[in-house]
Amino acid sequence: MIDERIEAQRIADNLQEPVEKAGELAEKLGLTPYPVNYWIVDYDEMNELIAYGGFQERYPHWRWGMQYDRQRKQSQFLGGKAFEIVNNDNPAHAFLQESNTLADQKAVITHVEAHADFFANNEWFGLFTGRDEAPDNRSDARPESGPDATAMLARHAETIEEYMTDPEIDRGEVEKWIDHVLCLEDTIDQHRPYAPVVTDERTEDLDTADVADHLDDLDLTEEVRQQVFDEEWLDTQSDDDGSVSFPDTPERDVVGFLRKHGKQHDEGAGKAIEMTDWQKEVLEIVRRESYYFAPQKMTKVLNEGWASYWESVMMVGEGFAADDEFVTYADHMSKVLGSGGLNPYKLGLELWQYVENTANRREVVERLLKVDGITWRNFRDTVDFGAVRSVLEPPAWLEDVPGHLDEIDPDDPRIDAKALERARSGAIDVETYPWTVLTYDGLVQRHYSLVQAQNRGFLGRIGLEELERISRYLFDDSRYGSVEAALADVEYARGWDRMREVRQSHNDVTFLEAFLTEEFVDANDYFAYEHSQKSGEFRVSSTDHEDVKKKLLLQFTNFGKPTIVVADGNYDNAGELLLAHRYNGVVLDDKRATEVLKRVFELWGRPVNLLTIDKEYDESDVEVARRRDREPDPTEVGRRLRYDGAHVTVEDVPWEDVEHLAATDIDYDTKPDEWLR
């Protein structure tokens, strides 16, 4: 044990300088992260942290053990490797696995600093903390507001542990109750700030069925009931048409609705009864944690891409990976970016680079369109793109600071004069950390995207339609006499400034909607695929950018899960719950839907209904389509599933009852009219 502590301390000592320097570099680059506490952990501890979602303490439940086992098997049998985990907290906490190489640790540290910046500045994370406005500039002050998630989750763990050890409460019942709620953990309104559910029993409206149940609880004689609370009186408790319906508009926060109006089912009495205090508290705990983790699920591509981008700038662009570490780091990145399936790191990184490049390109084009003799019509024939890139290249001293240290002008705005003086005196290791003598302006030009090798064709790819659009909105009528004069006024920070604006306000859905353009899809060879009813296999369905966008939006809307809302809390005036599936071209899995209804029943106490749209295929149409090498056209029909505590029934409903559930503003059906041959 002593030897292990000594080894851990040695590793920590070696990482002290990279941690400090990464924080300094992140701020130089314009990031404003939460402070980060770094912890060295072993293999088993890392697996535990991953299972716990990045925290050291969670409420007792079997799900954590299942996730731990899955993570351990993934690393053992599938070759997965845990590089890092960081949580959204102020200060943030990042965990480094002690067995990783120094190159891996540096990559993790730079990656984490960018994550902490995203946590601190993205407004979707601010919804949980109540942060009104995220910083949008390069202030030296770090964001002050932030979650105290570690303490919150520890309190939750302690509360549920107390319930589980209470001799008057069955531990199995607590776990079962958690299971019921977890089945619905993503059915919250992630677009609204978190607020605890507050119920006022004195003012909460009761439907007719509720009144009848409360009369049963009073244990009145039948004579008194008939004389005072007869059927006519009960009918007057309803509204004019004999029906009480709520909520007024569909409620997205299903868990919150159940917390406010739900009950438990008493199997012995065969009716709904009030939830116990511990049931209400556990339900609200799971709901609160769902709201806390929601922004991370909503920004997976955005956040991982952001972290990968700045990690690359620091590790490669600023040489944070030493020469003898570079091959190891390259292998590290190839594993992260090269994994199969929908890779949020790769997609996010490519989209962020596209945001940067398009903003920088627009800045340059706006300048060039003000040059005498250049218009949007002759732009591509007149402008020498190679010459433009040469002018935009950073000066030699900016690319090689150590080699030109004595030549640098300390009064240049791209230079930190005090740091330059210290570097010349030997107080700063400028060979290892050349960025220390540069200001933000210097770093912006040093990393200007349009002159980088992989982007050298980007400026010339601009189309006539975009040129015309930019020209149309050029309100400044000042002119330049030459291309060189126009380029002298280029704002090199345009791309990074735009990236910070996007980082502040977007989530994955809005990010994809805004920036997954035809140019991006074509340049990166993205495509959509669908399951073929004809062949029974998945196949490429389209390379059109609109189809690709719809496919991706479908996977990220509502965390990629079906959107379910509360349509009526007194369905058919019988106290039943009616849920509605907002259909987007993808039908529900009947088996899973049935299991969810059974869970919801336990939280409502009465029968639960689910309205949805299903697809039917005529066997003869399928056979004809197969012979003609086409996909059959399905018929969409309305369905209602119902669970009464004992049986599940499914019945067809008229199309007019479900027509409003079909997506209209965005068509998520990515299958084109004619499949690619």
From TrEMBL:
List, for all copies, the residue spans of the domain called SpoVR-like C-terminal: 562-614
- Residues forming the SpoVR protein-like N-terminal domain are 13-363, 491-560
Organism annotation: Halapricum desulfuricans
Q: Write one Pfam family the protein is assigned to.
A: SpoVR_C
Protein's recorded name? Putative membrane protein
